[in-house]
Amino acid sequence: MMDLRGKRAYADTGFRWLAIVAASLVLLILGAIAVSMTVRSWPVLGRMGLDFFTSRRWSPADKLYGALPFIWGTLFTAAIAVVISVPISLGVAMFVTQIAPRRWRMPIVYVLDLLAVVPSVVFGLWGVIVLSQHFGLGRSFMTAGIILAIMITPIITSLAREVIETTPQNEKEAALALGATKWEMIKGAVWPHSKGGLVGAVMLGLGRAMGETIAVALVIGSSLGQITLHALQPGNSMPAVIANEWGEADDLHKSALIALAVTLFVITIIINLV
Hints:
With 274 residues, the protein is an all-alpha fold. It has helices at residues 2-48, 51-54, 68-99, 102-116, 120-134, 141-164, 169-177, 182-211, 214-219, 238-245, 251-273, and strands spanning 58-59, 64-65. Strands 1-2 form a two-stranded antiparallel ribbon. Strand 1 and strand 2 (64-65) form a beta hairpin. The radius of gyration is 23 Å and the shape is globular. The mean pLDDT is 86.
């Protein structure tokens, strides 16, 4: 009996240290990425200072690099995507888990899972051919936001569905037994229990939207210096400009593009921490 307990104790200790090493490895990798990218971006940050984040002029020929339009474009398109996607995603998740007949649930889940694995370049080309031309949106912030909304909807829906399904069945049955309607049960039992996880699902979708590259580069318009609330105007984003300009960049230009990547990295971490 003592030998069995001793083996279990060794197994528990081994598993605990394995988990600690795995978690530490993730933090070390993130730290190494942050340090190496910051070092590579320092030439342009040392040259431009805070003007890198506040200036609107991006002119590699003149050695001037202002990231503000790209920061704005990234946040603006991601905000459009979230505003479009979140109501749809949460509505679908609620329908699948609380309302849909059982025979409908798995087909809907399969379709959403298939949507999640479509390559981003396919969404980008569809946006260029259909949204830009046939719907008259052009290559703009709105087109990019719609494409991003389509891409993050499966992510938010899948996570929201998993969170909603963790609501204890007895709480839902208790609400119904007290005479609550289906909507009152959802509002009184499901939402309070799930809201923390739903916020996390939305934040992960927002992070995905901010980091998308190819699809956005194809449809946003690649306009330099554009800061506007007019969603049908062309613009640019940090991932898109990195993808478009990296191949022809010299050393200082590459440093500026890496600084954009570091900025995106920091913004994404801040959003997830919030």
